Amino acid sequence: MAKTIIKIDDLKREFRMGDEIVHALKGVSLDIYEGEFVTIMGSSGSGKSTMLNILGCLDSPTSGSYHIDGVSVDSLNRNELATIRNEKIGFIFQSYNLLPRTTAIENVELPLIYNNKISSEERHRRAVAALEMVGLGERLNHTPAQLSGGQQQRVAIARSLVNDPVIILADEATGNLDTRTSYEIMSLFQELNRKGKTIAFVTHEPDIAEFSGRTVILKDGHIIKDEINTDINDAARELAALPKEDHE
Amino acid sequence: MKTRILNLIKIALKAIVLNKMRTLLTMLGIIIGVASVIAMLAIGEGSKQSIRDEISSMGSNMINIRPGADMRGGVRMNPSEMQSLKLKDYEALKEEASLLAYVTPQVSGSGQSINGANNWPTSIYGVNPEYLDIKIWDLQDGSMFTNAEVRSAAKVAVIGQTVAENLFTNGEDPIGKMIRFNSIPFKIIGVLSEKGESNFGQDQDDVILAPYTTVQKRILAIDYIQTIVASAISEEDAQGAVDEISTILRKQHDISGNEDDDFNVFSMDELISTFSSTSEMLTVLLVAIASISLLIGGIGIMNIMYVSVKERTREIGLRMSVGAKGADILLQFLIEAILISVTGGLIGVILGFTATLFIKGVLGWPTIITSYSVIVSFLVCAVTGIFFGWYPARKASALDPITALRYE
């Protein structure tokens, strides 16, 4: 039995909107095991973003319990949550969120700057390794403006890897990219997953979900479907099947 | 902790370098503020010191007592014609005043001094030997007359440099020579050292000093005295001495209760404070103006930090999502504000020094850069940075990471 990385139990999250109370999550339970590649799907308003925020320790649930890597985060304060984010979680955003006018290597080093246990030499070494892993070993000193969208997202992926997190949380990571680049990125995710990385990937595109080993579908704050995908699509093969473009 | 601060300083430095032009413009307020505070204080301090020096050179603890405010049948008298100061007043002061180091009566007259074919219009001051101690004056040559010569009303005199130059044109030694003042012969026994012009434009060397008894009897034919000149035992005691003199003279003159004095007592201290209060007021005014520009500089920093926080809300959200704590964000922006203000302060200090040197060199104004003006304006800068940087930084650190990340 693989190690449980994420364990949420009867998670509820309510927001107060004026006089009304919005129930974004109405009792969600979910376990994610080490080495899994899970896509979380659902239309907007289904609660998937709320769930991702809670999984990412950016938000706290109204009730229910949440353990990440065996640590209960329910009673942690702001600073302790920051430390969990820093050491156990890798974030990837739809809009990359790279620091402008800052080189790729500096962007990747960012999470480690907030970890005092890591020296600047170690930080540099790990950032270079992460960029090499995503295929940008040649572009360490490029700024985001000098990189394409796909390359920027690769920098963001390298940044999420650099602190060696227990889970990578991706929020619509291919949402801003064209099909070809999306498949390239998905192929990279699959490769990382094969190397043992645990990934939770939020998307609303069904074809993206086909690349993962498990799909969780949320609707109106409930999980309506949670199934193992036995027929995983290979992103590298899909990429090869795409009609050739005049590329760069 | 050390590496953490170091990392945050690096981040702040990077933000400053990335916005060079903006940072420079923000600093400009602080630079001008600090430079003008330093330069203004230097000018103020310089003029105050030069006034103080000039007045002190006249004898710093000197006190003058003159007759005054004497009403005779409703007619105000010219103080020099009043006869209310007597020799026994001087004797009483000499006996009773404990805060006075030296006292001398002073009577003066003007007239023509003659040595053979040379003549020169000048003033004669009748005093006692203590006069030189009060005026802090030395003899260049010869000696001062003695108290015995005062008692005997001897016809001896000590002459100033200007008188010596005009009466002894061919460079002969005046000591031992006889001159005439208003046809009274005096034997010269000493020559005073050069004192120069007073700051009221009077040539202090154009004078003959003689025993007051001689001047009273032979020249003026009076038995009262015009002025009493004294010096306090120290500068701190000057005010006490003034009060003491008033008390003694009121008793001498039988002035009781709330009747007005028939004399006036002036200390150099009052003169100094009158003059320096004018320049002090000017300094305060200048510094106030300079401080306002420093304050505006500070507000400029707050403004820019505010814009910076707003502009970088997403960056703040990102930093938080990868593990930055509120304190990290707070420190990052605070360090940025402090770096801007302290760098601006440093440049301002350099500019202030340059401006002061320029004022001294080109305009020739006396200037003194006091270390406190540098320290104070620099501290004000750092405090400005913290004070005006705090609020925006605090706001940044309190942001909710989710809202910050979604901020457009």
Automatic annotation (TrEMBL), chain A:
One of its GO terms (cellular component) is plasma membrane. PROSITE patterns: ABC_TRANSPORTER_1, ABC_TRANSPORTER_2. The keyword 4Fe-4S does not apply. InterPro entries: AAA+_ATPase, ABC_transporter-like_ATP-bd, ABC_transporter-like_CS, ABC_transpr_LolD-like, MacB-like_ATP-bd, P-loop_NTPase. Coiled coil: none annotated. Belongs to the ABC transporter superfamily. Macrolide exporter (TC 3.A.1.122) family. This is Putative ABC transport system ATP-binding protein. It comes from Flagellimonas zhangzhouensis.
UniProtKB/TrEMBL annotation, chain B:
One of its GO terms (cellular component) is plasma membrane. GO terms for molecular function: transmembrane transporter activity. Coiled coil: none annotated. Signal peptide: none annotated. The keyword Oxidoreductase does not apply. Residues 288-400 form the ABC3 transporter permease C-terminal domain. It is found in: Cell membrane. Residues 23-247 form the MacB-like periplasmic core domain. InterPro entries: ABC3_permease_C (IPR003838), MacB_PCD (IPR025857), Macrolide_Exporter_MacB (IPR050250). The chain crosses the membrane at residues 21-43, 281-309, 330-359, 371-391. It is a multi-pass membrane protein. Keywords: Cell membrane, Membrane, Transmembrane, Transmembrane helix. It holds the Pfam family MacB_PCD. Belongs to the ABC-4 integral membrane protein family. PANTHER family: ABC TRANSPORTER PERMEASE YTRF, MEMBRANE COMPONENT OF TRANSPORTER-RELATED. This is Putative ABC transport system permease protein. It comes from Flagellimonas zhangzhouensis.
